[in-house]
Write a structure and sequence with these properties.
The chain is an alpha/beta fold. The protein has seven helices and eight strands, in the order βαααβαβββααβαββ. The two termini are about 30 Å apart.
Length: about 270
Amino acid sequence: MILYLIRHGQSANNLIGETVLTDKGEFDEGAYKHYMTSRMPDPPLTEIGQRQSERLADFLREARPKHLPVHDDPPEPELRGTDVVNRLGISRIYCSPMLRTLQTAQPTATALGVNPEVWVDLHEHGGVFDNSGPDGAVVGHPGLTRSQMSALFPGYAIPEERIGENGWWFGDEEDRPDCDARAIRVSARLRVMAREMSDERIALVIHGTFMDSLIKAILGRLPGVDFHISHFNTGITRIDYALSWKDKTPFLRVRYTNRVDHLAPDLIT
């Protein structure tokens, strides 16, 4: 199984968050406070985020290999013809239930003809919340309801058992240990999927912090925040679930991380 991990396009919160560091890379306490009081619980994409998502869709539809087929995309000759749509052969798209990932997946779904499946456990660290309570206290929000999601994103597969008319988020703010534990669960599920769907190529449209936790879990690294696996908006990481050539035991290959070939310099955020 080939796994593509894709961060969502720039969100409204990302745009505000860019002011937290000064031009010299120093932390700005005042800007951080502004971010915390201004952030939205479930932000949409910005105009730049939408453009990034469209460029992502073009790349996934038209990607051509740069190297030998065994070292780059796509590995099969039948996916390299000039009249082929979906050159990477992506057969399934999963995305978190947050608005920015649902929006990011939409152009790709249209371009590839693959309806996304909503996977609740792919949501971002923290959940759906803002700081609108007294003295900036955290307030949880339910997220999109099933009806809202269906109306905005027709054709998406929405799990009935996890997303209803009361939304899908029922807490305040998820802490990092719980996020890491969720990443471990998703990683375990991916291992099962790799056995059951060994020939498939799947894409997960997810979030920056959760992607950091998930990659660490996939690679068997203990949870921790002493380093961060960073991704630009719509950055792509590819991990192959394979078998060792020596003894045919499960073997992971990290092909690349944070690939942004599809973005012009002014669209990298």
